[in-house]
Amino acid sequence: MRRFNEAISVVFPAYNEEENIEICVLVAHSILKELVKDFEIIVVDDGSTDMTREACLGLEKRLDNFRLIYKEKNEGYGYALRDGFSAAKFDLVFFSDSDRQFDIMNLKDLLEYIHDYDIVIGFRKKRQDPLKRKFLSWAYNILVRAIFNFYVTDIDCAFKIFKKKIFNKITIESQQYFVNTEILAKARLFGFSVKEVGVSHFPRYDGESKVGFLDIPRTLRAIMRIRRSLSAISSA
What's the gap between Cα 56 and its chain centre? Predict the structure, then answer.
């Protein structure tokens, strides 16, 4: 495996992932040791009500370059990412979900392009989710393309790496899952370059998905809010 001369902050947002979080972090730690020059792993526990926090406290005792950000109250996926990115100390910031549906080894494929692009994003080559999730994602991607007039294959794929400097321009406002669309829509507005790379995807090992049909009204409201925000930025 090629070793990259990079330092990277890895952010895992987590909400009620007690079955997954320890394995997720330990696997990432093992791979990152061989893949990059330096790294840190940050888990943002978004007010979990299970034993996610306790598992992370145990990891803090075992791993020097692991940090836990714990929120007393569940604030949402977008805010978890916002706080993780803000806490990151390295110039490259990568995030993925903590449910173990992605292969952290695919990070090497994104790192190949990060010198030439500001953002490198994954797309799931063969998505391993229930039909409901696939349908929601398909419909959402079509909606986003129509409203924001930009195309990416898999906008909500939770496997992305950024040059941290982009967040000097991009302020995350989205509390929930719309955060991926917000970041990429604002990146397009500010002229940041984006590269897409295919990544592997696995069925969920344990726990339950946090996304469902009840998120649709909230997402539609978020779309309108960010449209107004983008219009204000363009007019400034």
Answer: 19
Contacts of 135 (CB under 8 A, 6+ apart): none
For tokens 């989710």, the residue is: 129
Is residue 122 within 8 Å of 85, Cβ to Cβ?
no
Summarize the confidence of residues 205-219 as an average pLDDT: 61
Q: Is 184 left (phi over 0), alpha (psi -120 to 50) or beta?
A: alpha
pLDDT score for 160: 98
pTM: 0.89
Give the neighbor-by-neighbor strand order of the sheet with 4-14: 66-71, 36-46, 4-14, 92-96, 159-163, 119-124, 194-199
Question: Which two three-digit tokens encode residue 7?
Answer: 């330092």
Question: What's the pLDDT band for 82 if we cut at 50, 70, 90?
Answer: very high
Q: Return d(Cα 219, Cα 224) in angstroms, integer.
A: 9
Query: Is the pLDDT reported for residue 236 higher than 70?
Result: no
92-118: per-residue pLDDT in tens?
Answer: 999 999 999 999 999 999 999 999 999
Phi (first) and psi of residue 186, to 5 degrees: -70, -35
